[in-house]
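Entry:
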Amino acid sequence: MFARRMFDSAACGSAFHPELEPGDDVIVLSPHKGLSGFWSADLALQLRQRDIQTLIVAGMAANLCLESHARDAVENGFDAHVVGDATAGPGRAATEAALHSLGLVASSVVTTDEVVERLATAAVPS
């Protein structure tokens, strides 16, 4: 991951994609120092202050930060839904192993299409 400059803020791709640039109503947390922001940052506090219970988790290090965040979310009482096809790792075997493990811990492992469908359904007023 270091050889690929995954953690280099000056590397190509380190900025937000223009279509995903957070608006003024989005909280961008400080980077975490360990594998999970639940223990080295104020992630749980920020979520609870905003009455957020359900998390959608995806990322580039399935077997490290993503797995740690999802596990810690569940252990802190949150519902963590992992987006399997928006998750990567250091090789197919490591990614598949992490997703298998997360399937035993997370609320669900879903696809991007399923997340989009669920969000659209949740956004419809009853």
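The longest strand covers residues 79-87.
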